[in-house]
Specification:
This protein is α+β, with helices and mostly antiparallel strands. The chain has 4 helices and 2 strands. A two-stranded antiparallel sheet has the order 1-2. Helix 2 (49-55) packs across helix 3 (64-75).
C-alpha cells in the first residue's frame, strides 16, 4: 500500500513538471511570434524568393529554404511562378519595421 502512494506522488510531480515545461514553451513561443510582423514586397524584374531571403536576411530568422517555404505557403504561390508586379507578404521582425519607418 505504501509503495503505491509513492508511485502516485511521483506521477503528480512528473505531471506538474510536464505542465510547467509546456506552459513555459507556450509563453516563449507566444512572445517570439508577437515580434514577427509582415511586409508586403512587390516583385521586381529578376527578383526571386531566394534573393528576397538574402536581401531581408537581417530581418528574419528563417533559413533560406524555410523563408521560401514560408512565403510560398503563406501567399499560396510557387517560387518559380512569381512575375514582376506580384506582391508577396514576407516575415520580418517588428523592431526592423520600426527602424525602417523612422
Amino acid at each position: 500500500m505504501k509503495m503505491r502512494r509513492q508511485g502516485g506522488w511521483s506521477f503528480v510531480i512528473v505531471l506538474i513538471i510536464i505542465v510547467s515545461v509546456m506552459g513555459s514553451y507556450s509563453l516563449v513561443k507566444a512572445n517570439s511570434d508577437s515580434k514577427i510582423e509582415y511586409l508586403n514586397v512587390k516583385i521586381e524584374q529578376g527578383d526571386t524568393l531566394w534573393g528576397l531571403s538574402t536581401k531581408y536576411k537581417e530581418n528574419h530568422t528563417y533559413t533560406t529554404d524555410g523563408f521560401v517555404k514560408w512565403v510560398e505557403s503563406t501567399n499560396g504561390v510557387q517560387a518559380d511562378s512569381l512575375q514582376p508586379g506580384d506582391t508577396v507578404k514576407i516575415p520580418v521582425e517588428r523592431q526592423i519595421i520600426q527602424v525602417a519607418s523612422k
